[in-house]
Amino acid sequence: MPAGWTSAHPRADRAHDLADRLRGQILAGKLAVGARLDEAVLVRDFEASRNTVREALQLLSQQGLIDRKRGAGTTVASAKYGHGLDRLAGLAETLAGYGTVRNRVLVAESIARLPDQVAAQLEIDPTAGGVRLERLRFINDEPLSYDVSYLTYEVGEPLLAADLAGSDVFALIEQTTGTRLGRAEITVHAAVAEPHVAELLDLPDGAAIFTIERLTRLDDGMAVDSEVLQIRADRFALQAVVHRDHRADPL
């Protein structure tokens, strides 16, 4: 039995104890990314019941530290992908340094009427219509995010003939309009993936995700892209460098 291990608690407590020990090994690098966690080996090494081991692994899976896939077993999860909040960049642009990024285009269509809330964000009448895009984003062949975008008709229509599977929408907007993007208003919150989103992202029911709501404007301030990105929280980290405002500093 590993030193420091105790099994004198109820099963739920023992599962948490085991999860804590395994978490420590993962974070310390003693269990490398991709290392296989075999239930039978854990039962033997920790002298725990199979149910205790399964509950501990479920806890680690919910925390994004391990991957559990039917037919492939349980392995230590890869590191999270970082996305900075200190500059305006598309998700594909940000992820390019982490591996192969590709999009699966689920919907790309012109619509005659925009949802009222979206039209209000884009500062146009709903009957002006627009373009709706739905994309499933993969990195290194693993699903990472499900993105839904509404664009103004003038900006979005030329994109329907573009390479939406292989290109970043931000780059396409700048290419087709000849105008740089200027700024975006962003809201980030935690959510539980709805069943159809969990299925698309290969997540268990009730898994946590990041939801990013972003309204992007051209350099002249015109709103052109209202989007919602639903991103796997176990694969993603939001990062920023912030500076203290010393204008009111009494020193």
TrEMBL record:
Q: Which InterPro entries does its entry note?
A: Bact_HTH_transcr_reg, Chorismate_lyase_/UTRA_dom_sf, Tscrpt_reg_HTH_GntR, UTRA, WH-like_DNA-bd_sf, WH_DNA-bd_sf
Task: Report the residue ranges that make up the HTH gntR-type domain in this protein.
Answer: 12-79
Under the GO molecular function aspect, what terms does this record hold? Answer: DNA binding; DNA-binding transcription factor activity
Q: Which SUPFAM superfamilies match?
A: Chorismate lyase-like, Winged helix' DNA-binding domain
According to UniProt, the name of this protein is: GntR family transcriptional regulator
- Gene3D superfamilies in UniProt: Chorismate lyase-like, Winged helix-like DNA-binding domain superfamily/Winged helix DNA-binding domain
Q: Name one Pfam family in it.
A: UTRA
A single GO BP annotation from the record? Answer: negative regulation of DNA-templated transcription
What are the UniProt keywords, alphabetically? DNA-binding, Transcription, Transcription regulation
- Superkingdom classification of source: Bacteria
